């Protein structure tokens, strides 16, 4: 008799009313909104600023690469940049390897 009692009670319980589907997905929608504003949007902004910096590169700019090498831009091509890192030492890099442009005169003080 003890085994049959939960089955009887389970059958006698009324069915739950279906909830609003919007309220079911509301936490998921809010989570996606937070993720967009905290992760996706700032990353897109940084990418846009980096593309603008790369398109504005010109001869004589002082730059730092993603590897930490600092130098002066000697030649700017479509997808490559030639950087002079020491007197008569030039390195050809992809434009995307340039991480930042330094203020003029930064290399002399370093």
From TrEMBL:
Transmembrane segments: 25-41
Matches recorded under InterPro entries: Preprotein_translocase_YajC
GO terms for cellular component: plasma membrane
Gene Ontology biological process terms in this record: protein transport
Keyword Mitochondrion on entry: no
SMART domains (UniProt xref): YajC
Compartment(s) where it occurs, according to its Swiss-Prot or TrEMBL record: Cell membrane
Bilayer topology annotation: Single-pass membrane protein
Keyword Transcription part of the UniProt annotation: no
Homology family: Belongs to the YajC family.
UniProt-listed NCBIfam families: yajC
Protein name: Sec translocon accessory complex subunit YajC
Originating species: Aerosticca soli
